[in-house]
Amino acid sequence: MKKTRIKIAAFIICAAMCAGSIGLGANAAATKQRAKEIAETAVTATADTTKTAPNTDEEPVKDETVYVLAGADGTVQKVIVSDWLQNSLGAQQLTDASDLSDITAVRDEAAYSMQKDGALVWDTKGNDLYYQGTSADELPVDLTVSYILDGKKIAPEDLAGKSGKLTIRFDYKNNQKQTVTVDGKDVQMYVPYAMLTGTILDNACCKNITVSNGKLMNDGTRTIVAGLALPGMQENLGLDRSKIELPDYVEITADVTDFHLGMTVTLATNELFNEVDTAKLDSLDDLTDSMNQLNDAMSQLMDGSSKLYEGICTLLEKSDELVKGVKQLADGAEKLSSGASDLSDGASALKNGTAQLASGAGALKDGASQLADGTDTLKNGSAALADGASALNDGTAQLASGADTLKNGTAQLADGAGTLKNGTASLADGASSLADGTAKLSAGASSLKDGTEQLSEGSIALSVGANALSGGLNTLTQNNDALNSGAEQVFNSLLGTVNSQLSASGLEAPALTIENYADTLTAIIASLDENAVYEQALAQVTAKVEENRSLIEEKVTEAVKAQVAEKVAAAVTEQVQTAVSGQVKANENLIRAAVIQQAAGMDADSYAQAVQAGMIPAETQQKIEAAVQQTVESKIAEQMASDAVKQKIDTLTAEQTAVQMETAEVKGLIAQNTEAQVQKAIADNMQSETVQSKLQSASAGAQALMTAKTQLDSYNAFYMGLKQYTAGVAQAAAGAEQLKTGAAALSDGAAQVDAGTGSLQGGITQINGGAAALRDGAAQIDAGTGALKDGIVQADGGAAALSGGIAQVHSGAAALKDGASQVDAGVGAVQSGAKELSAGAGALQSGIAQADSGAGALANGAKQLSDGAKQLYDGILKLEDGCPKLVDGVKQLKDGAMQLSDGLKEFNEKGIKRISDAVNGDLTGFIDRFKAMVDLSKNYRSFSGLSDGMDGKVKFIYKTGEIEMKDSQ
User: Fold this and answer.
1) Model confidence pLDDT, tens digit, residues 220-253
2) Among 357-371, 692-706, 751-765, which is the least confidently predicted range?
3) 462-475 in b/e burial notation, b at 16+ Cβ within 10 A?
4) Mapping DSSP to helix (H, G, I), strand (E, B) and coil, where does residue 225 land?
5) What is the Cα–Cα distance from 883 to 873, expressed in whole angstroms?
6) Backbone phi, then psi, for 265, in 5-degree steps?
7) Which H or E run includes 774?
């Protein structure tokens, strides 16, 4: 049944090709002429004719390729659409319809504008346009890949490294179903797609490989598997599965050991059916007559098999030419052997280079691991800094509360000092009444003595507290430089990390400092604009290609010279052959006389008389004339094959080729083709993976730098807050010093008051006789209380300054707390990035190790190719020696030719008649459905959208993920 499915699928495809072949034949002459023009202007065998072939249609064409990136089970991960707008008329603008996202031009700096109706108007400048985008729309065909190991279904991620009997099945679901009219009835039909799935299996892990609906190609180390499916075709054509089964899936089976699988690729296309001209089906007398013709042709083929015997006889006669061809093949094999040896040497050099690259990747991985370890330590330190900043914030809050209490106390003390000052003034005014109140004075003096003693004790306590506060703040101030220095060191460390990232990415920039980092990073981010990076890459690629312009021109000149020499040689050969023919034909009478003498045994005159007399039969005359012409042609060929004529042709060809190469036309062609190759090289390099990777990574680099700048800005806020905090601590220390001075003055004033009141109490007995002395003492008391009041005012000012300074300290501590938290978060991000860098370095090392392994495999393969080429050369030499045996084999082939007739009869009975019988049941319906299906296919021309006045074609390429063993396995 499997072989039947393959044959039927091939039959359907062949029918489509036959139906379209008439239209192709109509353009054969134009195609031949175009091929000649291309051959005259081609300069290298690697010209990208797919991209440069002109479109002869009058309307632009949208050629669309849809890349479906899927997991190993077929789950769609991303859909990328690449569009080529063929600007056949060189229009300056093209209007296109597209529902893609993230649209970007991929080859030229073309720009587009969006119209109100959603149409895209591209500025093409008369050129073709290439752009791409992404899509989330439903695909016309869904692909599902399932895996069965030893009869049980298994997930692809669990399959790597397993062994057993494995079945891989590719199922295709056609989603493009529409209603069409067939013979007056509405019928559901699918847009036809041919699904071609291929993959490469390693023979080291896969044995006994089979594929349904497909073919296998084995080179000894790998097996290429290709399968064909036509989802929905069975329903479209209304075929009975019991008679004919069209494949709608591909199934691969193998015995596997330590299984692994690279990617699989599936091509989905309806272009095969779009080439069918349904009108030509009627001109072929319908498919009914075609099937009858097929049966008749088989009968003729069987009847004509006897003619094969005559052909084999001809082959036997031409064996000498085959021997000459084998000799040429031996010469070519010798050159192949030499080239394969050179390839082997180059592959060995590549292997050495990848080994050095793998060594460097190992060093990068070790450095990234050390960076990750260092960021762990930095993370622990930043967390401790955050905890300390929080504790400092709480302590400064308590210190601010105490400072407020101290300020209130000094205010009250200042009020008391004012009251005391007023009292001493009253004491001086009332000295005249001293005599009357001595008793009262004695009691008051005793109370004053007690108060001054308390004042003295309080001022001492205040002085001690002020000293302690001043000492504590001085100690805190002493840590300001260390704290600022540590914060600056962390800042510089973060800047150093960003500097290293900039250096590693290849960006040239001045070293980042605390003062310049913001402006520098802003400028770098601006320079990473996509347009700026593209212009820079284009300039570099153009300069590199221009360095090789002379080499390109040399290759182009060689190609053009070869074409010119070929044309000149043909013309020279024709001229020489004309001259030789004239010389030989000038002696035709002598040749005729010699032929007549040999054939008739008489001279020319006698022969002429005999002919005139009717003595020579017409048949004999015809044979003689044929012999004369054959002899003339033989002598012409003999002259043309002579060394002298060949030398003359070679000399004339070389001379005329040199002349032609100096003409302005040829030089202009060389210049034109050289410029075309230079531009193509620039375009190809701009489309290379390296350049495209740089363009794509520019935006990612800008985002990374913006993230780094944001983190540095956050730390800068903390750093400035810390500096404000240390400045506040210093200011608080200065206020405490003022408080210390005021407390000392207060203590001195209190001592003076205490001494004065002692003198007052001691001299009460002398009051009556020393009123003047009393007035003097009252004055001293008044002066002392004034000093006391001044000292308390100073203390109150110092307490206010202390309160303000501590408030700044508290504010700075809060900023320190927030900044420390930001530092901790930022260091966490650095830590995460360092770990990702370490992981990425590990992946890079792994990838380079694979590249090294691949280079080793290439070196081994090149060595095998070299050995194989030598074996091929040895084998062809043996083939050359065995050519005589071939002649004997051809003789034996004559005897077996008659056996072909029996084989053709069996093929007719089991193959052709079976197909004919299967479709002849309802042949008219089959034709109508086939036409409707082709028309349905032609209407599906685009996946992302198509504007009016534009033709289109589309194909889909599905790529599934690899199944590889993990490192732990």
Assistant:
1) 899 999 999 999 999 988 888 887 888 999 999 9
2) 751-765
3) bbeebeebbeebee
4) strand
5) 15
6) -125, 130
7) helix 771-881
The chain-wide mean pLDDT, for the chain, equals: 75
* Residue 140 · residue 266 · CB < 8 Å: no
In the DSSP assignment, the letter for residue 802 is: H
Per DSSP, 45 falls in state T
How many Cβ atoms sit within 10 Å of the Cβ of residue 175?
Answer: 13
* 882 CB burial (10 A radius; 0-12, 13-18, 19+): middle
Q: Which residues neighbour 852 within 8 Å (Cβ) at sequence distance 6 or greater?
A: 351, 354, 355, 357, 358
The two three-digit tokens of residue 747, written as one number: 């203590």
* Total residue count of the chain as it appears in this document: 969
Q: What is the pLDDT of residue 195?
A: 94
Contacts of 295 (CB under 8 A, 6+ apart): 908, 912, 913, 916
Residue 907, amino acid = F
Nearest to 13 by CA among 215, 191, 272: 272
Give yes or no for a contact between 725 and 815, defined as CB atoms under 8 angstroms apart.
yes
Contact yes or no for 105/128 (Cβ under 8 A)? no
* Lookup result for tokens 């080439």: 275
Alpha-carbon distance of 773 to 780, in angstroms, equals 10
- Whether the per-residue pLDDT at 879 is higher than 80: the answer is no
CB environment 27-50: b (16+ within 10 A), e (fewer): eeeeeeeeeeeeeeeebeeebeee
The answer to whether the Cα torsion of 933, 935, 939, 941 is positive or negative is: positive
Backbone angles phi, psi at 720, to 5 degrees: -70, -35
Q: Parallel, antiparallel, or unpaired: how do β-strands 61-70 and 951-960 relate?
A: parallel
Instruction: Give 281 or 570, the one with higher predicted confidence.
Output: 570
> What digits encode the pLDDT tens for the residues 124-182?
888 999 999 999 999 999 999 999 999 999 999 999 999 999 999 999 999 999 999 98
Query: Alpha-carbon distance 807 to 407, whole Å?
Result: 13
Taking a C-beta distance cutoff of 8 angstroms, is the pair 392, 813 a contact? yes
Distance CA 178, CA 575 (A): 65
For every residue of 352-374, DSSP letters joined together read: HHHHHHHHHHHHHHHHHHHHHHH
- 405's tokens: 């209490």
pLDDT tops 90 at residue 694: no
The dihedral of CA 850, 853, 855, 860: what is its sign? negative
Q: How far is CA 139 from CA 84, 944, 959, in A?
A: 20, 10, 14
Q: What is the pTM of this model?
A: 0.38
The DSSP symbol for 98 reads -
pLDDT band at 473; cut points 50, 70, 90: low
Grouping H, G, I as helix, E, B as strand and the rest as coil, residue 587 is coil
Joined together, the tokens standing for residue 629 give 């012409």
pLDDT of residue 506: 74
59 secondary structure, DSSP code: S
- Asked if residues 855 and 350 have their Cβ atoms less than 8 Å apart, the reply is yes
Residues 213 and 211: their CA atoms lie apart, in Å, by 6
Please tell me what DSSP assigns to residue 912. Answer: I
> For 54-95, how does the pLDDT look when each residue is reduced to its tens digit (9 = 90+)?
444 568 999 999 999 999 999 999 999 999 999 888 889 999
Q: Where does residue 910 rank: exposed (0-12), middle (13-18), buried (19+ CB within 10 A)?
A: exposed
Q: What is the mean pLDDT of residues 697-716?
A: 76
420-466 tens-digit pLDDT: 567 656 655 655 665 565 566 566 657 656 766 765 676 676 577 66
CB contact at 8 A, 809 and 728 = yes
Nearest to 848 by CA among 481, 245, 404, 359: 359
Query: What CA–CA distance (Å, rounded) separates 291 from 686?
Result: 53
In angstroms, the CA 131 to CA 123 distance is 12
What does the H/E/C string look like for 103-121? EEECCCCCCEEECCCCCEE
Closest CA to 356 of 844, 848, 837, 841: 848
